[in-house]
Amino acid sequence: MQPAPGFVNAYTFRVGSVQPTDARRSLACRARLGVCPTAKTRGTVLRPAPGRTSALDAWRRQSHRAYQHRRHSLRMDISSNDFRVGLTIEVDGSPFKVIEHLHVKPGKGAAFVRTKLKNLLTGNSMERTFRAGESVPEAQVEKVEMQYTYAEESDYVFMNMTTFEEERIPASTVGDTAKYLRTGQDVSVTKWNGKPIEVEVPTTMTLEVVETDPGVRGNTAQGGSKPAKLETGVVIQVPLFINVGEKVKVDTRTGTYLSRG
């Protein structure tokens, strides 16, 4: 049998599809997929001749649409009563992170949940109120473990710890997290539809003090504070007894001193 009109042999491809019981239907099915149905060349993909649209390409597009449909159907909703800090939800078609939430039960009327949300695409924050128990779609984001390597122009370069491939992320996406980046720093990159939208470092980090006023003997944590520059360049307030060369623990979410390292 001759290959389907307009197709030429290209490369070997194994088809894993349902086989109709009728032999003629099976051959027709394989021909529509662009696979040579003859016994001699069975399993050979047929590449469309110039100017022709490949049936295989159409099948691939259909498979991709089916995948997107399954992905959408697997999307989970979450009750506003179960909101927690750090949760990513979808609002008006965009991913948001819950920064603050408060469950309110007024004396009269229905209970509600007041939230502060951060748009992970723009970085802007907004306040939003939800009915108690209201179902909200959980954003289908992907968390990828990476390691910071270096900065170049307006980009930060990270290495994917699974594929070991480098990926450039714009400084606008890295945002304030850049203040805590040091070579070899592990980070978590949030992706939305395959695009990086947020870079996070651990909530607690131990960093060395590289610049601060000399400590005063006898001062305690309750005796006041002073600015100190840490090894990544960030400046925080530390107790008066902290000196250059010491290590301190920092809450990277708020930029506050926690304790000596």
TrEMBL record:
CC terms in the record's Gene Ontology section: cytosol
Name of the molecule in the record: Elongation factor P
SMART domains according to UniProt: EFP, Elong-fact-P_C
Domain Elongation factor P C-terminal as annotated: residue spans: 205-260
Residue ranges constituting the Translation elongation factor P/YeiP central domain according to the UniProt record: 143-197
One annotated GO molecular function: translation elongation factor activity
Residues that span the membrane, as ranges: none
Signal sequence, renumbered to the chain: none
Domain of life: Eukaryota
Source species of the chain: Cyanidiococcus yangmingshanensis
